[in-house]
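Hi support team,

I've been running sequence recovery on a batch of backbones for a student project. Most finish fine, but this one hangs at about 90% for roughly twenty minutes before it completes. I'm not sure whether the input is malformed or the queue is just slow. I've pasted the structure tokens below so you can try to reproduce it. Let me know if you need the job ID as well.

Thanks,
M.K.
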């Protein structure tokens, strides 16, 4: 059954005038004229068939009907206002669930989340690190940072960051008994392998290096593990530029020579279509865009040499 409700503007005029016992102050609160308040109240009284106010020369008071009607109308407006505040808070603040792969979460995103919290203390980020693709349509995740080719039907996505692939190692290894001055000198080093992401064979072929076994050396199934092995001086690893940016900046790793390949995959910001412009999602997207300026890896002193041909995840 359809509700029989008076016009909302008339109820607002009545509630404000009843609180202030003044058409003038009600008009100021609602940013309308006193005549408009008087007109709305008269229209409400006509619709209800009762008199709500006693209009005296210099005073305004409620009738018994008005006094009985006011608490319910006031409570209804209070409930609407409270529900609206809660809804707005949910959209602009509260929990924001972000999912991404383990390597990116640990190497780049987690160290920077404090900066986001300083800018947006009203938003609590729940970081869900998982290499499995999360179904964004379920609604339990607000935003994903995915590493791939940008082929997710039914979702909204935007390329955020591309990467390069290049060798890195401990600075102690560069200064050791078999210094690295050119890619061919990798034949004297242990190659560290990231079994999940990058491929030494492709890089060595692109760099024109012969005499190096691309399959020799220990392997790891996690990108951060292979970088930790390189930091520990266990060999030379192929690094993805975004994941190694902080290690290069801190001097934990160096680039022994400057031969780089573009990665075949890129990072994408992905959401369900209806979530893209939600205020807290938009705040996180805009923060990610602002952070792009600070992620370029330090280049070595050698002549810069970019090679064509992407390396894709295996």
């Amino acid at each position: 059954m359809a509700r029989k409700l008076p016009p909302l503007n008339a109820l607002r005029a009545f509630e404000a005038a009843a609180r202030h016992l003044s058409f003038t102050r009600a008009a100021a609160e609602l940013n309308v004229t006193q005549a408009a308040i008087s007109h709305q109240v008269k229209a409400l009284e006509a619709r209800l068939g009762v008199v709500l106010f006693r209009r005296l020369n210099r005073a305004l008071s409620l009738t018994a009907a008005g006094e009985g009607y006011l608490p319910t109308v006031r409570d209804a407006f209070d409930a609407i206002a409270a529900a609206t505040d809660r809804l707005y808070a949910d959209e602009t603040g509260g929990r924001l669930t972000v999912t991404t792969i383990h390597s990116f979460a640990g190497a780049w995103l987690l160290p920077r989340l404090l900066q986001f919290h300083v800018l947006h203390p009203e938003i609590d980020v729940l970081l869900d690190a998982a290499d499995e693709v999360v179904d964004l349509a379920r609604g339990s995740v607000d935003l994903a940072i995915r590493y791939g080719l940008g082929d997710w039907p039914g979702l909204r996505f935007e390329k955020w960051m591309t990467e390069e692939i290049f060798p890195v190692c401990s600075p102690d290894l560069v200064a050791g008994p078999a210094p690295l001055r050119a890619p061919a000198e990798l034949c004297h080093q242990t190659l560290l392998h990231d079994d999940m992401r990058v491929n030494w064979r492709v890089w060595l072929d692109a760099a024109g290096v012969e005499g190096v076994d691309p399959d020799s050396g220990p392997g790891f199934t996690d990108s951060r593990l292979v970088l930790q092995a390189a930091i520990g001086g266990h060999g030379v690893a192929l690094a993805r530029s975004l994941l190694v940016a902080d290690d290069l900046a801190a001097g934990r790793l160096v680039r022994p020579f400057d031969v780089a390949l573009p990665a075949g995959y890129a990072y994408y910001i992905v959401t369900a279509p209806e979530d893209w412009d939600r205020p807290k999602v938009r705040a996180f997207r805009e923060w990610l865009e602002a952070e792009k300026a600070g992620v370029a890896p330090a280049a070595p002193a050698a002549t810069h040499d970019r090679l064509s041909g992407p390396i894709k995840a295996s």
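--
Follow-up from support: It reproduced on our side and the slowdown came from queue contention, not your input. The chain has a mean pLDDT of 86. No action needed from you.
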